[in-house]
Amino acid sequence: MVIKESFEKARQVYEKWGINIEEVLENLQQVSISIHCWQGDDVKGFEADASELSGGIDVTGNYPGKARNAEELRQDLEKALSLIPGKHRVNLHAIYAETNGEKVERDQLEPKHFENWVNWAKKIGIGLDFNPTLFSHEKAADGLTLSHPDPGIREFWINHCIRSRKIGEYFGKELGTPCLTNIWIPDGYKDIPSDRLTPRKRLKESLDKIFSVEINEKYNLDAVESKLFGIGSESFVVGSHEFYLGYALQNNKIYLLDTGHFHPTETVSNKISSILLYSDRLALHVSRPVRWDSDHVVIFDDELREIALEIVRNDALHKVLIGLDFFDASINRLAAWVIGTRNMIKALLYAMLMPHEYLKQLQEKGNFTERLAVMEEFKTYPFGAIWDYYCEKMNVPVREEWLKEIQKYEEEVLTKRQ
Ligand code: RNT
Ligand code: ZN
């Protein structure tokens, strides 16, 4: 009752500005976030002889109860999804293949190894996205894959990426929504390179080979993800921002921006409008870098709101494919998903509850005083009341109530895993 009352009051406040709440909630409900499965098991995967996590990324923490197999991971994901308003997607990596304990090389993976995932996705009515895994593998042990000087190693990873795109195609066909298959590679050098061009030429050639296999965009969309540095690749990363932005634009691929892959004061929010002038699509890995590409859980901070504002005020919700990418093993892993995803949705709602046309006009007229004044006042408008109402309407717990569900699940399910 209190929720409804607060909502009605809040609605009036926004309606004074011509903001139609019904329309806003309708639009919000259409947004599908791609939730990364790898938060559930610390990016380990289920390969028969899984290697240690490599590639210059790292997960810290040892909170009990991580998923030990695909079944547990799906069960955990389902639980988390039940606490997040709306219909979302799940993002898989090649290392989440199910091979019945049999060793299947990554360049031999087939759609059938993801059949259980597809059946599950059908059952709960969601779409799937995909990523080839070019790390945690003996052929990536020296931190080079698609740009490796050894043609045999390049070949192996090229084939893995082609296989991955076919798996994406299979997801798209089966689930009736195109799969975004995103290529991220760790390639780089710890120390200052004597040649930056040659590895980049090789990466370009490898990508050309991977994409020479035509796949209908109705089923599979291709993205490439850039990076600035990693652990062990502090001085040079082959697939940098300029490299992939250029590649994507020239080859009609989707560029993927990860919020943790830039200089600490450089923001992804400021890049969205520029890229959308030259590309009709853009993909995101929303993450949270803390001093480095640390992949902390997404919080409701200034940059998250700014990203949401850039998507909403530029009418780009249908152009930007929003995915998440964080992995924290020091807290309950389901809670991490719920916190991060609810924050992403919350930020979009926040962004939808602003008089963008009015604010744009103020800027056009040079009225920067009022622009700043109104933008600041909106920060404390009663948007929480609209959010609470939305959660209730979508049949998910309101405010921190969801945590009780997680605590119960931890007690009944997670603590029983050894
Ligand atoms: C690494 C990239 C990449 C990975 C996942 C696991 O820096 O962000 O997206 O986090 O593919
Ligand atoms: Zn990423």
From TrEMBL:
GO terms for biological process: L-lyxose metabolic process; rhamnose catabolic process. Its EC number is 5.3.1.14. Keywords: Cytoplasm, Isomerase, Manganese, Metal-binding, Rhamnose metabolism. InterPro entries: L-rhamnose_isomerase, Rhamnose_isomerase, Xyl_isomerase-like_sf. It comes from the Bacteria. Pathway: Carbohydrate degradation; L-rhamnose degradation; glycerone phosphate from L-rhamnose: step 1/3. GO terms for cellular component: cytoplasm. Signal peptide: none annotated. It catalyses: L-rhamnopyranose = L-rhamnulose. Mn(2+) binds at H261, D293, D295. Belongs to the rhamnose isomerase family. This is L-rhamnose isomerase. The gene is rhaA.
